[in-house]
Amino acid sequence: MSKPTETSSELLERLQHQVALFARRAEQTRLGGVGKARNSMDRAAYLLLNRLDREGPMGVKALAESMGIDSSTVTRQVAPLVDTGLVKRTSHPDDGRAVVLAVSPRGRGRLDEVRDSRRRLMAEVTDGWTPDEREVFTDLLVRFNTALADWHAGLGRGDDEVPAAAEGAPRTAGAFESQGNTQGA
Questions:
Q1: How far apart are CA 105 and CA 26, in angstroms?
Q2: Coil, strand, or helix at residue 88?
Q3: What's this model's pTM, rounded to 2 decimal places?
Q4: Which residue, among 155, 144, 128, 130, has the nearest Cα to 177 in the 3D structure?
Q5: Which residues, including other chains, have CB under 8 Å from residue 56's CB and lie 6 or more apart?
């Protein structure tokens, strides 16, 4: 027996509701993982450390641009990471006057713990799924996050219009979170 065809409006209603539920449940669990590392690192810290680990040392401005957020936000979020020894400030290798941020050995260790904890949570939540179902869900989530990042960057943004995918438009920096980060956020 086949499922009755939903109208576009009905389908979008279900989608927006499921996204709202997902956001609430993600916040409830904070997708913080399982075990002792659960909820031991907030989302901002995780995303900053993850970016620095993946892309290497960089200045505040470059880090902000790569994440699609304001430099003042990065400065504010990085300060406690420096204070706790998870991030270190060093001189730029080419310009000793400039400062770059890098993940410290302690930060890398904590990041590895949190990544492992989050992977275990994803394994538990999707325990009854086939590998193909996990892959399809991940691919669709990457696509959704990329479209949402593009929308936030202003590609097709408007009060009375449905965001349009900009054909051939460059991906925003925020898209990296969804495309390159297979280890969770």
A1: 29
A2: strand
A3: 0.69
A4: 144
A5: 102
- Give the phi and the psi of residue 78 in degrees, each rounded to 5: -80, -30
The token pair that represents 145 in the structure block: 């996050």
Residue 114, CA distances (Å) to 22, 34, 57 in order = 21, 9, 20
Q: 178 burial class (0-12, 13-18, 19+ CB within 10 angstroms)?
A: buried
Rounded to the nearest 5 degrees, what angle is found at the Cα of 171, between the Cα atoms of 15 and 148? 20
Spatial CA neighbour of 104 closest among 116, 90, 115: 90
Contacts of 88 (CB under 8 A, 6+ apart): 82, 101, 102, 103, 104, 107
Give the position of tokens 């219009």: 161
pLDDT tens per residue, range 63-117? 999 888 899 999 999 999 999 999 999 887 777 778 899 999 999 999 999 888 8
Per residue in 168-185, pLDDT tens?
333 444 444 444 443 344
Q: How far apart are CA 138 and CA 97, in angstroms?
A: 42
